[in-house]
Fold this sequence. Notes:
The structure is a homodimer of 149-residue chains. With 149 residues, chain A is mainly alpha-helical. Chain A contains 6 helices and 3 strands. Chain A has a domain at 30-122: Winged helix-like DNA-binding domain superfamily/Winged helix DNA-binding domain (Arc Repressor Mutant, subunit A, Orthogonal Bundle). Chain A has a 3-stranded antiparallel sheet with strand order 1-3-2. In chain A, helix 2 crosses helix 5 (98-119) and helix 3 (53-60) packs across helix 4 (64-76). At the A-B interface, helix 1, helix 2, helix 5 and helix 6 of A face helix 1, helix 2, helix 5 and helix 6 of B. Chain A binds a DNA duplex (30 and 30 nucleotides) through residues 35, 37-38, 52-54, 62-70, 72-73, 88-92.
Amino acid sequence: MQPATAITDTDAAIASGFERFYETLRRLTPRGPLSLTAASTLRRLERSGPHRLSELYAPEGISQPAMTQLVTRLEKEGLAERTDDPTDGRAVVVSITDAGRAAVAHRRAVRAAALSELLQGLTPEEHAAVVAALPALEKLSDFAAERAT
Amino acid sequence: MQPATAITDTDAAIASGFERFYETLRRLTPRGPLSLTAASTLRRLERSGPHRLSELYAPEGISQPAMTQLVTRLEKEGLAERTDDPTDGRAVVVSITDAGRAAVAHRRAVRAAALSELLQGLTPEEHAAVVAALPALEKLSDFAAERAT
DNA sequence: CGTCATTCATAAGCTGGTGATATAAAAGGG
DNA sequence: CCCTTTTATATCACCAGCTTATGAATGACG
């Protein structure tokens, strides 16, 4: 009996390639003051505005106490801030600060520079192939984000 | 004054796309018994055979004591094993066990299944674009690996 | 062989996560 | 209107996996 979703050889090759590429990306921004989750959360706040704490922890894949602590840390470093929700006394609204935006931008620039260096080793054809695949990769990210809802 | 490596708009777009896609991949294999580094190390042992401990920690981006501890954990779980190097009494040779190979295979299968599901949402053209970009991604990984030497 | 280098292990401490539980506000039924 | 239940966040105790500093054992070599 086949599993519900049979995996083709092509898809297996994609998975294998992505597996290695993931490790490459992981090491491309070696060590900063921000954890992976911290950076990801800041990017989310930058990208889609303030959120309640309860809307943050699930999509980031961590528990609610972990997000409470993360926000506390970010607040202590001046990268994010807590605000009371006037319509709900229990809730807390988290938003990114200017310093937070700057931190995200810096991290992004460092990674882009390292990546750019690698990209220079590609032939024009390979470079074009990467560019051509970008919309598909974005679409995959969209799917994954939806599914997490 | 321009930085040594000026970054084109295209490369910035690639970096931006990769940034998001990285997060997608990160959440695609949610929670296993293996840490990211543990899984990566096992894959390395599987892919390129036994290694001395000192050859492992740098490419994995962790300190030597961290690798000692990681190998101890992997050994305790039966996924890897230590052997004495007959030619050097100080050295330790680490190799993957059958159980380790099975763990890697399982993890790979889980990720491949999740990814395959996402891939089904792509049009044939998008799917082909991803496949076409794979060699370039692999080359980027090779570059990054070299640079770490 | 005595000294220095290399290889791995150990120790102590930090960061970022977990589950269980506390606190406080909102919601809702009788 | 209470009283109970649910929801939103915080706190607590604990653990995994990393760090730096250091130790122990073997190898290399003048």
